[in-house]
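Can't paste images in this forum, so I'm doing it all in text. The chain is below; anyone willing to post the predicted structure tokens underneath?
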Amino acid sequence: MYFFQQNGVLTETQYGFRKGKYLEIAVQAFIQNIQETLDNRENYVGIFIDLTKDYDTLNHKALLKKLSS
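Text version of the structure:
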């Protein structure tokens, strides 16, 4: 993570796996964005994808081998 933070790869809105960035903060920011959009009488579109089952089908040994190379 240090490399990504030092080289500006991650934006301030990237909450996953970052120190001090908690789910509660992400949800609060999301709700605030929706409220501001509605207050401005604009449209808000959300796309939600559940990837939790995708990781259940991975061969973890093969993935770790690829990552190490």
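The helical segments are 2-6, 23-39, 60-68. The chain is about 45% helix and 0% strand.
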